[in-house]
Amino acid sequence: MTMPRTINEYLEQLRVALRGADPALIQDALYDAEEHLRAELYERPGRDEAAMLEHVVESYGAPDEVAEIYRDQEIKIQRAIRPPPPPKRRSVAGRFFGVIADPRAWGALFYLLFGLVTGIAYFTWVVMGLSMSAGFSLLIIGLPFIVLFFGSVRGLALLEGRLVETMLGVRMPRRPPYPPKDMTLFQRIGAMFTDPRSWSSMLYALLLLPLGIFYFTLIVTWLGISLGFAAAPVLKLVAVSEHWDIGTCVGLADSTCRGIEWLNGWGGASVLCVLGVLLFFVLLHVVRGLGHMHGLLAKHLLVRGVERG
Asked: How far is it, in rounded angstroms, from Cα 101 to Cα 249?
């Protein structure tokens, strides 16, 4: 690569050197590089960009060198923060029941279960912000309010990215896109409005409510049935000890229980218990898959298209 003469050329060469890397990693690397270069230029106001870059290349590194450092650091960081993988099991039963030792399955379970709370918060904020922006658009405070609202959406997107990476294991940006410096104030505002990621972040915030309702309903219903089935022997034991005239058809209609008399005995309670345990393990597999798909959705809508600039 030729020696960059401007900060934009340096960033473009760094983007090219990182081609093929994770988009979240590229965004973080570009943010760090631009922040460092802008700080160097600010500290030496009498030096032009070309002279500053010549000095920085010797200390901070050339774009290809910085890209290699970030790739190496990413491997080390992922190894450090990634939970230990569950031991590989060759048998079908081992792979099926081994999901209980997978941290990603539990992380996805809690993320999807409480996604309804974050979904309500994000949905309310975006709808309220858009409504108030439209209402204030004719007033003098309209433009500042809209700018603050768009900035808050970017902040929420960064926060959500941290949750997704921590609980779902999908690499997300740890720094926001660097604000443009070579534009006027109105050009920056226009760039904020025309940035597809501003609107896709709002779309994600709106989608999180129906998705959260779906996740919450699915998990709570599935958990209720599986735990109810698993508790059938306990209910049977309590019924016998207390002389209650009830069966153990937990979660089944009365007509079904009357049609299958053996479900009211110890044999039926045992079958329901085994079925409940199996349903719980199936649930862990399902939520792990849902968590992975949700992480990909979040990455697609929240990560800026840094490969294309």
From this structure: 30
